[in-house]
Amino acid sequence: MMGHDNETSIREFVLLGFSRERDTNVYLFVVVLFMYLITLAGNTLIIVATRIDPRLNTPMYFFLCNLSFLDICYTTSVVPQLLVHSLRSHKNISFIRCMTQLYIAFFLGTTEFILLAVMAYDRYVAVCRPLHYKIIMSRKACIQLMMVSWISGFINALVHTSFTICLHYCSYNIINHFGCDALAVIKLSCSDTSVNDIALMVSGVLVLFIPCILVMLSYVYIISSILRIRSSEGQHRAFSTCTSHLTVVILCYGTAMVAYMSPKTNNSSSRDKILSFLYAVVTPMLNPLIYSLRNKEVKGALTKVAQRKNIFSKRQ
Hints:
The chain has helices spanning about 5, 20-50, 60-85, 95-130, 135, 140-165, 180-185, 195-225, 230-260, 270-295, 295-315; strands spanning about 10-15, 90-95, 175. By secondary structure, it is an all-alpha fold. A three-stranded mixed sheet has the order 2-1-3. The longest helix is centred in the middle third of the chain and has 34 residues, at about 95-130.
């Protein structure tokens, strides 16, 4: 096959993963499996707690429930494959599966970034405009904001995946990553990738930079309002509802902005793998821990879930 046909003949990619040493991969398997189980358990408990406790029937926990669902979906789109490949010498993935994984990563990642900005807006209204909170953050408004997040993710993922599929790929099919990361896949193309580069830059501004700026502005107003509260107890309560979200924002936006918006160097591949691992495996595990450990309402709801399980097991 010659010419154009030869350029599109790749049927599968080979993932290098983190290491070729079996002992290292076995250790990685154990650690990642442990973290994945904690992620599933923690985020599932958050979802269950927000459903069964009437005190958590508020916009803040409605969005938190969506965030936990996103974390479960995102980490599940990456971790099972990472676990299987850590025990296999040939880490192959078909072209279709690779593009599907890439689409899911863009879809859920974009949705999460927009959702975190929405959650910052919710905290801004709660702290800075408490008397109008129920009117502004009505059930209808919350659903609309959630839908904006999901639709934004769908459109952004569709654009980037379409551009990536349209590229021509020659004989080299080895991806220096543990998954089908967009930057790693685009590097393999033997055609002009300027459109993809521009799309990633525009997406970085719209999905990462602008929402991050809006989050920071929200917290400038939030902190200034909290400092005007006279009682130390009131300040502590206001801060406690915001610090969890701000911690998650720094973890999510920070890793993504360094990965996609920082200058590339000779060590970019290793750095990108570590950052992707942090975002896809570590952050989804930490999110429920951050919210539950720093929030009395969530801890109370989780205690109620545990008590219900104990009562149910005793009856059996």
